[in-house]
Amino acid sequence: MTIADRNELRQPAYGNARGLSWLIAELRDHLWPWAGKGQPARKSIQLAGFALAIAATIAWVLAALGRLEAGAIIGWWFGWSVFEIFVRLDAKPYVKEGPWWGHLYRRATVMDMICYVSFKNLLIGAVLFIGLRTLGIVQV
Description:
Elements: H1 19-31, H2 43-64, H3 70-91, E1 94-96, E2 105-107, H4 110-134
Helix pairs in contact: 2-3, 3-4
């Protein structure tokens, strides 16, 4: 999706998808910060992002194996979140306008992206921590 005007509302690249296809498209949009087809992103940011994503994934796997402390996991997650802000501003510079189930997007400001990524990653991190703690793998 290209967004030409800061105030212009657009539909997402997946249009008016419904049901399971909508859910899959939403998950991909929220979990995968890099651009899709038709959205060229800077290659240096992409390469650094892939390397950091692999490192963050390894950190979560080490945490799941009980070999990484909670503070280290939080540090990795915070670092990933800061990097994701830059990636999304470059590759997907939009946020939803209106309710979360809506289909309208607008160009994101830096503060929009900071708030979006922070809240999204806080929720994902909380779910992962609760899951690891429930399994007795991470002690907080």
